[in-house]
Design goal:
Elements (H helix, E strand, L loop, with lengths): L1 E2 L6 E4 L3 H12 L4 E5 L10 E4 L2 E4 L5 E2 L4 H8 L6 E3 L7 E5 L2 E4 L4 E2 L2 E2 L2 H6 L5 H9 L14 H9 L1 H16 L8 H4 L1 H10 L2 H11 L9 E4 L4 H11 L3 E5 L4 E5 L2 E5 L3 E5 L2 E3 L3 H8 L4 H8 L2 E13 L11 E3 L10 E4 H4 L8 E9 L11 H16 L7 E13 L4 H12 L5 E3 L9 H13 L4
Helix pairs in contact: 1-10, 1-16, 2-16, 5-6, 8-9, 11-12, 12-15
Bound molecules: flavin-adenine dinucleotide (FAD).
Flavin-adenine dinucleotide binds next to helix 1, strand 3, strand 18, strand 22 and helix 16.
């Protein structure tokens, strides 16, 4: 094992979007860095493939336009002209209820109804839930409540059916998580604030809508014409002159004087500025001997495992057309599928006219065993669900599986307190920063922000 000379370069462990963003914002200031990742391709869970003439995202497919960090980076990289929005004019989403597709009522903001008529006439919810939703308007403000699970919170406001058929499926699509474990303070902070200020979430949401600046016609989600992989490619190219990409796995970290030592299989690297941009559980391993308390805190941030399956059909063999973004399957409806996107409806430039591309989601909290299934068993299960739910009987021309073990951080009840403890403890280590989806947001813009902050000397 060789111990390298003192290095002026920052070291970044992890080459997903968080680590790449850190390398980019260092490179922008002409600062050198070394980026370490064992994967053959950078980008972490962002992986874009071309399959049977379709553009298929194996991991994330878009980012929320409301958070500015992704757009800012994309513009700087010169990719602004490639940005496309989701086709929001056909943004209906279906929920599976008793094997039938039921549209989410218009005007629903997460699980909060903002329009009376579509909610009253929707077959998705029973009359008792609808009445409860109306009475929710009478709630009085309640400040100073402790953190609770999203499940308890939504149940308290709108009743259990609103958890089963709204909060659970909607959150599964984002976090792959269990609503009775996810923290309302960390996952739905705006709703917790509304409860404190207005009592009623409906009242709070309506007030927010009334005070919101007039929409400039932007779309809810954005992506890149050639897939999010093109963001990874542009970043990889942009950092090239300043960043050495090292293929390998960091095994542990330690400290000597004002330097951090990063041990890899066959060498030890030294730096004064260390960014750890791995999932929290992988960061925990690095800290095990160095600071067991930080290792324990990091290790207690749970991660769920999920999987996407791209199923591509030849349209000539199908009679169906689906006028929706896709559907969500509540856990109580018990299917292998958790959700499914009709990619041609959600985004242009993905699917040629003669193809149907379905992007299916499986796994998530409590369903993780499915990640170990053989591809033949998966195929049987997915096709059987698609036949039962959509009537698709044809044999697909492609079936592409992307498995993402322990990839999605779960902000459980108490996450904020844990983060404060972690931040406090990290103050002992100058110029050591954590970035990634385990701390202050799991979306791509959040991860970019965490990498940018770590590069600039701010802890998440
Ligand atoms: C299936 C799926 C769909 C998603 N959809 C969306 C979406 O549509 N929109 C959105 O905004 N977000 C989405 N997300 C969330 C978002 O994509 C992720 O939170 C984000 O990309 C994580 O980036 P990251 O760099 O923090 O972590 P990762 O992408 O997990 O990258 C971490 C990197 O660290 C490396 N690493 C791990 N251990 C070590 C080690 N010891 N040494 C060196 N390297 C190491 C890994 O190889 C990996 O490359 C989705 C996530 C998944 C899994």
């Amino acid at each position: 094992m060789t111990s390298g000379p003192k290095s002026e370069a920052s070291i970044i462990i992890g080459g997903g979007i968080s680590g790449l963003a850190a390398a980019y914002y260092l490179a922008k200031r002409n600062l050198p860095s070394i980026l370490i990742d064992p994967a053959s391709k950078l980008g972490g869970v962002i992986q874009t493939n071309r399959v049977a003439d379709c553009l298929l995202e194996g991991g994330p497919d878009s980012f929320l336009s409301a958070k500015p960090e992704a757009m800012a980076l994309i513009e700087e990289l010169g990719l602004g002209g490639d940005v496309i929005g989701s086709n929001d004019h056909q943004r209906s989403t279906w929920i599976v209820k008793k094997n039938r597709m039921v549209p989410l009522p218009d005007g629903l903001m997460m699980m909060v109804p903002t329009r009376i008529w579509p909610t009253v006439t929707s077959p998705l919810l029973s009359w008792s839930t609808k009445i409860r939703m109306g009475l929710e308007l009478l709630r009085r403000p309640k400040a100073g409540l402790p953190d609770r699970s999203v499940g308890e919170f939504v149940e308290d406001h709108y009743g259990p059916e609103a958890v089963e058929y709204l909060a659970e499926p909607l959150l599964s699509g984002v976090f792959g998580g269990d609503p009775y474990q996810l923290s309302v303070e960390s996952v739905l902070p705006r709703f917790a604030e509304m409860e404190a200020k207005y009592g009623s979430l409906t009242k709070g949401t309506l007030a927010g809508l009334a005070n919101a600046p007039k929409s400039k016609g932007g779309t809810l989600f954005r992506t890149l014409k050639n897939g999010l992989g093109s963001l990874v490619d542009a970043l990889t190219k942009a950092i090239e002159p300043h960043c050495q990409v090292l293929s390998g796995q960091a095994l542990s970290i330690s400290r000597e004087g004002d330097e951090y030592l990063v041990r890899l299989n066959d060498q030890i690297l030294r730096t004064r500025h260390l960014v750890i941009a791995t999932p929290a559980w992988a960061a925990a391993k690095l800290f095990e001997d160095f600071d067991p308390k930080i290792a324990k805190l990091l290790g207690s941030i749970d991660y769920s495992s999920s999987m996407t399956v791209g199923v591509i059909y030849d349209r000539a063999q199908l009679s169906q057309r689906f006028n929706s973004f896709g559907f969500l399957v509540p856990k109580t409806e018990r299917r292998h599928l958790v959700a499914c996107t009709f990619v041609d409806q959600k985004f242009d430039h993905r699917v040629p006219e003669n193809r149907l591309l379905l992007r299916c989601f499986l796994g998530g909290a409590g369903n993780e065993a499915i990640l170990d299934w053989a591809e033949s068993d998966l195929k049987r299960a997915v096709l059987s669900d698609l036949e039962a739910l959509l009537g698709l009987k044809a044999e697909p021309i492609a079936f592409q599986v992307s498995r993402w073990p322990k990839s999605m951080a779960q902000y459980h009840v108490g996450h904020k307190k844990l983060i404060l403890e972690l931040q406090e403890r990290l103050k002992n280590y100058p110029l050591l920063f954590l970035a990634g989806n385990g701390y202050a947001g799991i979306g791509i813009p959040d991860c970019i922000r965490s990498g940018r902050d770590a590069a600039s000397g701010f802890q998440f």
